[in-house]
Amino acid sequence: MAQIKWTEPALNDVDEVAEYIALEKPCAAQKLVKEIFKKTKLLKKFPKSGRHPPEPQDTNYREIIVDPCRIFYRVEKNITSPM
């Protein structure tokens, strides 16, 4: 099973997006954050389940989509790092 390691900038981005959405729809912001962590948690069992993004090409990065967010990550020897 892979390990998920969040970077500080990635966590800050999630926080900023949630704060912005919460200005108009607090419940939607909370739902989005829960969905982001739910989907990224699935990467523990299925680290290669995300797609290769169209840009940048030929990298180790993959992405999962939690609309309106794109979560980039890479797999390194059983360690998954959202970016």
From TrEMBL:
Alphabetical UniProt keywords: Toxin-antitoxin system
InterPro entries referenced in this protein's UniProt entry, alphabetically: RelE/ParE_toxin, RelE/ParE_toxin_dom_sf, TA_system_RelE-like_toxin
Pfam families named among the record's database cross-references: ParE_toxin
Top-rank taxon: Bacteria
Family note: Belongs to the RelE toxin family.
Record-given protein name: Plasmid stabilization system protein ParE
Organism this protein belongs to: Nitrosomonas halophila
